[in-house]
């Protein structure tokens, strides 16, 4: 599972790094250019992370936060692919 804070209507798609909320919980800060209408931002998030992590879109699923900025994604991938995604998260922070 990956906790994400999504910012829609951004100037570009980007991972801004790992941040912490007021309770100290870590999340990945991501922005996408899509507007938050009819699931467009959620679809853009999944497409962007799938491209960035070199995974099929079907490997990512929104588990929580369909209409909220804070989201939870499940990631189904092999150990090597997950390790590469974690390395990407490290480099983004």
Describe this structure in words.
This protein has helices at 40-53, 79-92, and strands spanning 2-7, 14-20, 26-31, 60-64, 70-75. It is an alpha+beta fold and 93 residues long. It has one domain (2-84): Conserved Hypothetical Protein Mth637, Chain: A. The chain has a 5-stranded mixed beta sheet with strand order 2-3-1-5-4, with helices on one face. A hairpin with a 5-residue loop joins β4 and β5 (70-75). The mean pLDDT is 90.
Task: Give keywords.
single chain; five-stranded mixed sheet; 93 residues; Conserved Hypothetical Protein Mth637, Chain: A; 2 helices; alpha+beta
CATH structural fold name: Conserved Hypothetical Protein Mth637, Chain: A
Secondary-structure element series: EEEHEEH
Provide the gyration radius in Å: 12 Å
- Summed up, the domain count is 1
Q: What's the N-to-C terminus distance?
A: 18 Å
Q: How many β-strand stretches? A: 5
